[in-house]
Specification:
Number of strands of chain A: 10
Strand order of the largest sheet of chain B: 2-3-8-5-7-6
Number of domains of chain A: 1
CATH topology of chain A: Rossmann fold
Helix content of chain B: 40-55%
Low-confidence stretches of chain B: 766-772
Oligomer: heterodimer
Radius of gyration of chain B: 33 Å
CATH architecture of chain A: 3-Layer(aba) Sandwich
Bound molecules: adenosine-5'-diphosphate, magnesium ion
Low-confidence stretches of chain A: none
Shape of chain A: globular
Number of helices of chain B: 22
Number of helices of chain A: 7
Number of strands of chain B: 21
Largest interface: A-B, 34 and 26 residues
CATH class of chain A: Alpha Beta
Mean pLDDT of chain A: 89
Radius of gyration of chain A: 18 Å
Order of helices and strands of chain A: EEEHEEHEHHHHEHEEE
Structural class of chain B: alpha+beta
Strand content of chain B: 15-25%
């Protein structure tokens, strides 16, 4: 089977004064369609950097990143924008909802994204058949049917994070990226969120990549990629991923 | 959804955004208001002169015959020409009123426009009368109007009430300062109605094909007319004929100057408002995008393009300036423009003037919207360029380098309050500059408004208290002999003065004005350029300051002059320069005047003895004017000034309040944390408030000290664009300085009083909890 995502010798270098600092170096990995992948590593290991490269939110300073056989590593700003608009849903640690928009409006924002995106790109062809989801239904599917008209400041952390997931899902993206999605949540709410993500990956065939520093999450993934000091330490395949209910931290 | 976000952001920062809106509004409000009025006057002036076919050239000074007319008509550039007789007579009503009388053969050039009655046809009997005169004197069509010409009474039936293009602006006599319509007037009759047997044509009016009647005479038109005048002079073959173009016409010239004066005002104030709107946009948008940095990164990560986000942030300023501009344009058109035009309508007599919404107003809205949007894009560019991954990260703290001042030796010795404020100013330069500009605009307007009043007040005392100290002027009827006039002068211990029309030339520039010949006496006084009393050289030829400026000459220079009606030119040296607000030209003693072998023939006697009762029915006397009557003529002008002053003061107050309040809120929001810290450290609210007030005092002081010079410039522009016959000295009293300084300070203090009340409400815990 052909991988959906492939990193070849990816490198991300920051210049601090005259010194080069490698946030990522020699990263090689493959991810298959529909997988639930957990990227694990201590703080500062380069997990977020990796996720950002994957989501087209940043460009590598070396190597190639293939998404469905298209190399995005040399993409310009606006090409990356089109890629993100079609392909990627992101969930942040601190939810990053637009504070002046209600839950419903935050999700419906995705319609604006699609309306403004450039037409005729390869991504549009790749994603043919993946229509935008209805914001109301999406919110209902994450259990927020009764919270549509609340502003982020009127919701709990878990509700905000579920709104943020609904926002990412509404795009019906092939790739769902989550950077420490439970980082700001307590255990029970965190579990709810994990269950939701697991369901998304198994039922809706989305590829889910989740970043965390919490090794207890390793059990729920199809595959676990361990990152340390900017390099990939190990890649482990889980034959029998556990349900989110079974993990504890 | 982004529109909703915008709307809620606007509400959240309503004070700042509202002030941007108000400034965009005010800029266009003032611009479109003034421009619609100017465009209206300009347009309807052109329409009127075009419809009535106002003459281009007027020839006088000789007796014209029909052969002259056909010769002139034969010239290539002459479209039409007419002969007529123009003279001064009286209307005999309850008392006598001055009338300008026109006897015409045809009504093609400088056509009168009928308001009521039956139109004139060549050869028709009857009289067509000045509409203002008819209204004021209660005359109606069909009445008999009794008139007097050279002592002979005659009557004609009033056939119509009319407007005349040569009587858009007309005053009683050359020394009259303001029009007082209805107290004198003009009448038009056919030459067949001339009551005496000494008829001759004393004027030829010419309409050319080398100049049009819209928008004044430009340089080319002026040159072509001057060439044509030479041709006319040649075919008329007379040494006596005097040719003038319509620029020399008091009515035409005054109206044009008024329009141009208003036009020059159009561009003074709007840029200030726009500049403040822009500064508001810069600070507000920079601050907001910095605050929404993470949101911007999120939107990008979600797949919004940079363009979409840019458009989103530009739309704040776009909509504010668009709505502000459109509202301003509409309101300006219906309020300012209508109001000023209404006032103009009482000074200038046209059958129809209206405001015109010109393309300039559209352009102004468009320009304001474009500039505002561009500035707003520039202000948020910083947060929009980096990759979303970088924007999502919290911004690296502002580089808080210690400034040069902070490192200097003095720093430690200036105390905490000053340190804190200096640092605050240096770190928020744009905000400080904006505050200074706001105060500047505010104090400039207050100062200019006060100075307007000072000037009008001053002109009154200057004219009727300093330059002319008499309390009555007796105006002689035409044709009264010198001997008789001298008798009156003796009886009332008066000073006789003669004023005649005159033409001047120096270095190729020709101007018309007056020659004033005062006899011995001490009612007329003279002042030099600095308004210091001077005695004119007994035997010299003194020139009024404005005329010398118009001719481009100064004391000691040579120039030529001749009296209208006499073709002999004289060349003289300017012996003195004096100032006079309403009569421009030259002044010489009777002795000097008689040395040219002219006979002194005074029309006016100035006196301090009350002659009103005794002379009421005297046949030799045209009228007596008391000081109070002359002062009354100033009232119309004062009324207009007051209206302008109200507008200016209101604008000043809005400007000051909006800018200062906006800035205050901005700085409070920014300093929230700092002030909470100060509170935690044990500073009392009152102390913190006084710290804030200090900065406010600095900004206000700086603003005022720049505002007053600007105010002086504005006043000078305002009074520098007066008609050529006027010379206004812009005056500003100590009172104006004090009102300006105090007014601005009080305003600034009150705004900050309101603002700093908010210091009390700062919640220490909340403000220090940390960023979201
Ligand atoms: N813009 C940047 N400039 C310099 N260093 C950076 C930048 N972004 C990230 N880094 C560094 O790269 C390393 C990896 O960061 P990151 O991917 O955020 O780690 P984490 O695994 O905790 O998500 C860290 O040491 C971080 O300091
Ligand atoms: Mg991270």
């Amino acid at each position: 089977m052909k991988p959906f995502i492939e990193f070849r010798n990816v490198e991300k270098k920051y210049m601090i004064g005259d010194n080069a600092f490698y946030a990522l170096k020699d990263v090689n990995l493959s991810i298959y369609e529909g997988e639930m992948v957990v990227i694990l590593g201590p703080s500062g290991a380069g997990k977020s950097t990796l996720l950002n490269l994957l989501g087209g939110m940043d460009s590598p300073t070396g190597g190639n990143i293939f998404i469905n056989d298209h190399d995005i590593s040399k993409f310009k700003d606006d090409e990356l924008t089109v890629y993100r608009a079609w392909n990627v849903g992101v969930v942040f640690q601190f939810y990053n909802l637009v504070p002046t928009l209600t839950a419903y409006e935050n999700v419906a924002l995705m319609k604006d994204v699609r309306k403004n995106v450039k037409r005729g790109s390869v991504w549009e062809k790749d994603n043919a058949g993946l229509e935008l989801l209805d914001p109301k239904e999406t919110l209902a599917s994450v259990g927020l049917a009764d919270h549509m008209d609340q502003f982020p400041s009127q919701m709990s952390g878990g509700e905000q994070q579920r709104t943020s997931i609904a926002r990412a899902l509404a795009k019906n993206p092939r790739l769902l990226l989550c950077d420490e999605p439970t980082g700001a949540l307590d255990t029970d709410t965190g579990k709810e969120v994990l269950k939701l993500l697991q369901r998304v990956s198994s039922k809706q065939k989305h590829t889910v990549v989740m970043v965390t520093h919490n090794s207890s999450f390793a059990d729920i993934a199809d595959r676990v990629i361990r990152v340390k000091n900017g390099t990939v330490n190990s890649i482990i395949t889980n034959d029998e991923p556990k349900s989110a209910d079974e993990v504890s931290w | 959804m982004l529109l909703r976000k915008m709307w809620r952001d606007l509400l959240k920062n309503k004070v700042q955004f509202f002030s941007i809106f108000i400034m965009s509004f005010l800029g266009i409000f003032v611009f479109s208001g003034l421009d619609s009025e100017v465009s209206g006057m300009d347009h309807y002036e052109g329409v009127y002169y075009e419809n009535t076919n106002l003459y281009d050239i007027c020839a006088q000074g000789m007796a014209f015959k029909n052969r002259h007319l056909s010769k002139v008509k034969y010239l290539k550039d002459v479209k039409e020409a007419e002969l007529r007789f123009k003279t001064a007579g009286k209307a005999e009503l309850s008392k006598e009123y001055d009338l300008q009388m026109l006897f015409i053969d045809d009504n093609k050039i400088s056509r009168m426009i009928l308001a009521e009655g039956i139109p004139y046809t060549p050869g028709a009997s009857g009289v067509w009368v000045d509409i203002n005169f008819m209204k004021k004197q209660g005359l109606s069509v069909g009445d008999m109007l009794n008139m007097k010409l050279n002592g002979i009474s005659f009557g004609q039936e009033i056939k119509g009430a009319v407007y005349h293009p040569e009587f858009v602006y007309y005053v009683k006599d050359v020394s009259a300062f303001m029009p007082d319509y209805g107290e004198y007037g003009f009448v038009v009759m056919d030459t067949g109605s001339y009551p005496l047997d000494d008829f001759y044509y004393n004027q030829m009016v010419i309409r050319s094909s080398v100049a049009d009647n819209t928008g004044g005479l430009d340089k080319d038109e002026k040159n072509r007319l001057s060439r044509l005048m030479n041709e006319v002079k040649y075919v008329l073959d007379s040494d006596e004929v005097i040719l003038t173009d319509k620029d020399a016409d008091l009515s035409y010239q005054t109206f044009r100057a008024e329009i141009e004066q208003h036009a020059s005002m159009v561009y003074i104030f709007p840029p200030i408002f726009l500049a403040i709107a822009l500064l508001g946009i810069i600070t507000t948008m920079t601050r907001m995008t910095a605050k929404q940095r993470v949101q911007i990164g999120t939107l990008k990560a979600l797949g919004f393009s940079k363009r979409t986000i840019t458009v989103h942030y530009a739309s704040y300023a776009f909509f504010l300036s668009l709505f502000g501009g459109v509202l301003g344009a509409v309101l300006g058109y219906f309020t300012i423009a209508k109001y000023i035009l209404g006032m103009m309508n009482t000074s200038y007599i046209l059958p129809k003037v209206n405001t015109v919404f010109s393309f300039k107003s559209y352009a102004a809205v468009l320009i304001s919207v474009i500039i505002s949007s561009l500035v707003s894009i520039m202000a948020c560019r910083k947060e929009l360029s980096p990759a979303p991954a970088d924007t999502l990260r919290p911004a690296s703290p502002k580089n808080l380098k210690h400034s040069l001042i902070e490192r200097s030796f003095l720093w430690k010795h200036i105390g905490f309050t000053i340190q804190w404020n200096l640092r605050d100013i240096l770190r928020n330069k744009i905000r400080t500059i904006m505050g200074i500009i706001g105060v500047l605009g505010c104090s400039m307007l207050i100062f200019a408004a006060c100075a307007c009043l000072d000037t009008v007040e001053f002109i009154t005392t200057w004219m009727y208290g300093e330059l002319n100290t008499s309390r009555y002027s007796i105006i002689m009827n035409e044709g009264v002999s010198y001997g008789d006039t001298a008798e009156y002068a003796k009886k009332y211990k008066g000073q006789m003065v003669s004023t005649l029309g005159c033409e001047f030339e120096a270095g190729g520039i020709k101007k018309s004005g007056n020659i004033t010949i005062p006899d011995r006496g001490n009612y007329l006084h003279y002042q030099d350029r600095q308004l210091k009393h001077i005695d004119l050289h007994e035997d010299g030829v003194a020139m009024s300051y404005r005329m010398s400026v118009l001719l481009g000459i100064k004391e000691g220079d040579m120039f030529s002059w001749h009296i209208i009606g006499d073709d002999k030119w004289h060349t003289d040296r300017v012996s003195d320069i004096y100032r006079n607000p309403s009569v421009q030209g030259i002044t010489m003693s009777r002795k000097r005047y008689e040395s040219y072998e002219y006979s002194f023939c005074p029309q006016t006697i100035y006196t301090n003895m009350d002659p009103v009762k005794e002379l009421k029915d005297d046949d030799n006397i045209a009228g007596v004017q008391g000081l109070s009557e002359m002062m009354k003529a100033m009232d119309a002008m004062k009324e207009m000034m007051y209206a302008m002053v109200y507008i200016m003061i209101t604008a000043a107050a809005i400007l000051g309040i909006v800018v200062l309040y906006n800035l205050g809120v901005l700085s409070l929001v920014e300093k929230n944390r700092e002030m909470a810290t100060l509170k935690v450290l044990g500073f009392k609210s009152a102390r913190i408030r006084s710290i804030l007030q200090i900065q406010n005092v600095w900004v206000t002081l700086l603003g005022i000290s720049c505002g007053i010079p600007f105010g002086i410039v504005v006043i000078n522009i305002l009074f520098g664009t007066m008609p050529e016959s006027m010379d206004y000295v812009a005056k500003y009293s100590e009172k104006s300085f004090i009102i300006c300084i105090l007014g601005t300070f009080v305003l600034s203090y009150l705004v900050n009083r309101v603002l700093s009340g908010k210091v009390k409400t700062i919640d220490m815990v909340d403000a220090l909890k940390g960023q979201e």
